[in-house]
Write a structure and sequence with these properties.
With 127 residues, the chain is mainly α. It has one domain. It is 79% helix and 0% strand.
Length: 127
C-alpha cells in the first residue's frame, strides 16, 4: 500500500523505528542520485541547444540580405526553436537543482533524527 498523498496520515520520521529511518535515508540518497543523473542529461541538452541556436543565428545572419534589423529578425526566427530548447533545459536544470537540495535537506533531517535515536539508545544525550 503506497502513500495516498494525505500529509496528515504520513508517518513522521520522529516516530519511525531505526530500521525504517535507514530505509528512508537510502531512498532519499537514491532520489538525489536520480536528480544528479537527470541534471547531467539536461546539461548536455542545454549545451547542444545553445550551440544549435548560436550556429543557426550566425548562419542566418550572414546569409540574409538586407538591413541589419531584417537580418537580426530572420536570424532570431531561425534560432527560435533551439533557443526555446535551451531556455527549457535551463529551467529544468534549475528545478532539478531545487529538488536535489530538498532531497539533501530531507536526508540531513532524517540523519539527525537517526543520530538522536542512536544517542538515546546508547544512553548519551542527543545532539
Amino acid at each position: 500500500m503506497g502513500w495516498d498523498g494525505n500529509v496528515n496520515e504520513t508517518p513522521l520520521a520522529e516516530d519511525m523505528p531505526a530500521a525504517e529511518l535507514n530505509r528512508v535515508m537510502v531512498a532519499t540518497r537514491r532520489i538525489a542520485w536520480a536528480h544528479v543523473q537527470e541534471m547531467r542529461q539536461l546539461c548536455a541538452q542545454k549545451a547542444k541547444a545553445h550551440r544549435l541556436a548560436t550556429v543557426l543565428y550566425a548562419k542566418t545572419m550572414l546569409s540574409t540580405d538586407g538591413p541589419v534589423e531584417i537580418r537580426k529578425a530572420a536570424a532570431k526566427l531561425a534560432a527560435a526553436d533551439a533557443q526555446y530548447d535551451y531556455d527549457t533545459a535551463d529551467e529544468l536544470i534549475s528545478t532539478c537543482r531545487q529538488a536535489l537540495q530538498a532531497a539533501h535537506d530531507d536526508f540531513e533531517a532524517v540523519r539527525s533524527i537517526n543520530s538522536d535515536f542512536r544517542s538515546e539508545r546508547s544512553g548519551r544525550a542527543p545532539s
